[in-house]
Write a structure and sequence with these properties.
single chain; Aminopeptidase; alpha+beta; disordered C terminus; eight-stranded mixed beta sheet
Amino acid sequence: MNAEVIPFPQESIALGACLLRPLEPTEAEPLGRALAGLDPWRAAGYQADALIRYLLRPDPSLQRYAVTAGKELAGVVCARYPWLHGAYLELIGILPAFQRRGLGRAIVQWFESRSFLAGSNAWIVVSAFNTEARRFYHRQGFVEVAALPGLVKPGYNEILLRKVKPGTGPDPAQSPESR
């Protein structure tokens, strides 16, 4: 990892389809309440208060961004760095009115490019039951590398996905036997 690079600065970033900017504390409550009503958070039993605390708690390794489309709050993104020789997209939540407009794709592409400035891996965890999200990340080039049983809730699996910076290591899609 390159210690001199700050892959997720506390500044606004225009992505074309949306704008990312540092999350304001006043935005944590409406976003936490909205996410608690959406899958996968609803299915995993997340409470709004817990999500609000997550969005507000001090954590120097976690950058939180409000996602805006025009002047409207469209969602939230949380990126953790450093994490396993790269960065981890810890949370991406796009509100229903803004889904299927290319915001998620723009955010994941931004996350990947920023991750690769400072490390060789981009990581995401997705709920196993969230087949739509799994397909979405697969289309973005992420590969499922491990199941994480009971990570969030007993009886539910999470899936760890990885994308490796080109030219920096083995293709995670290859099995150990094929290397």
